[in-house]
Amino acid sequence: MSFRLSVTRPLIAATVLGLSVSTALAQQSPTPTKVRGEIERVDGDSLSVKSRSGQDVKLQLAPDAKVAGIAPVALSDVKPGSFIGATTVPGPNGTHNAVEIHIFPESMRGTGEGSRAWDLGPNSTMTNATVDQSVASNDGSTVTVKYKGGEKVITVTTKTKVVTYVPADKSDLKQGAKIIAFGKTLPDGSFQTSRIAVGRDGITPPM
């Protein structure tokens, strides 16, 4: 009898531990993600968005949600010392071709500094860094950026979109506006955002 009890107790303990781990995993925060698309309807702090992949997304603004506008600028505005974000894809001979470049305002300097995988397209990368130098030639332009732990030479083409952040508020989140929202998917399948960027004058945020 004592032998059977000594075996059963560890099994019970293991089962309880397993349930505890499962419960903890279930209670972890939802995975952060992004939503890109067009606003179809606005109902207070709730937005109905048609995502770029064609899905209908219920987008809920967090109480402290920050709204930023996106507006086009010239490549000449990307100057040494500017803090920028650049989405790049692999080009020939190991180059990094810029799909888009967005210039951060000084108040956002240092945001997400570094280089990481991105989800704009296959093998895309997002690099947030300070411009070291920019070189223009008859064949195109290159922008060298530096960040903590590395640097990258970015090739700019005629297809590269260049934008910057401009002031915006919730009143800019209206039907037809193009947005990119950062946040998390909630258990009910809706999406809550604490940061959302909206294109001004019909612009689609390119990042």
Automatic annotation (TrEMBL):
This is DUF5666 domain-containing protein. It comes from the Bacteria. The keyword Signal applies. Keywords: Signal. Residues 1-26 form the signal peptide.
